[in-house]
Automatic annotation (TrEMBL):
It comes from the Bacteria. This is RNA methyltransferase. Gene3D superfamilies: 3.30.1330.30, 3.40.1280.10. Keywords: Methyltransferase, Transferase. Residues 26-95 form the RNA 2-O ribose methyltransferase substrate binding domain. It comes from Sphingobacterium chuzhouense.
Amino acid sequence: MLSKAQISLITSLQHKKFRKQHGLFIVEGVKSVLEFLSSDYQVHSLFTTAEARTKMGNLPQKLKCIEVTLTEFQKISGLTNPQGVLALVHLPTVESFDWALLRQQHNLLLDDIQDPGNLGTIIRTAEWFGINHIICSIGTVDAFNPKVVQATMGSLARVKMYYTSLGDFIKKSEMPTFGALLEGKSIYRTDFRNAGLIIMGNEGNGISHEIVEKVDHAVTIPRIGNAESLNVAVATTVFCSEIARQKLKPS
C-alpha cells in the first residue's frame, strides 16, 4: 500500500526543484524502466501493479520493489494510459567534460530548446545515429523532466547530457561549429569533417545572437516546398542523418 508520503514524493518529482532536492527522477513504462535497470544509472525503487510485474522478468535482488493496486498507481502516474511500472532513479552526478573524447566526434549543442517532446526526440535520434553527448544551454528544458524521459524511450539511459554556458563551451572546445540557420550553405554541400559541434536553436527564435557569432559554418536544410519552417527535432534528425551518411560514404 502506498503511503501519503510516497505519493507526495513521487508527484513532487514532476517539478525540477524537487528533482534536485531529492536527487531523483521518474521513469515510466516497462521498456524504459528495463533500459535504466540495465544501465549505469542507480534505480532507487520500483512501483508496479501485479499484472505489470509479470512483464519485468528477473529483477535485481537488492532492488526495492513495491506492488500497488491500479487505483494507487494512477495516483502517481503522469501518463494518460499508465503501464503499471514506475521507477525512481537517482540523478547522475555532474561529470566534467572529457575534452579528448569530445574532440574526436560530433556533438549536439542545444540552445534553449523548450519543448520536452522535442528534447526527448532529439535524445532518441542522437542515440540512433551514434551521437553520445548532448551539451545544453542552461535555458534548455531539463532532460529529467518526466515528459522528456518518456519521449526518449530509454535512450536517456545511454546518452550523456550536460548543461553549461554554450559560449564558454564552444570557446574551450576549439572545435569547428556548424549552426542550423535559415541562411547558410546547403547541408548537402557541407563537409562536416570528422568531428564538430552541431548547434540547434530555440523553437521560436533559433540560435541566439551570442551563439550565432561563434558559428564557423552556417548550414541550412534547403526548402523545396512552401512550409514556413521545420520542427527542431525534425531538423536535428536531418542533420544527424547527413553526418552519418558522410561518415559511412565509401572513401
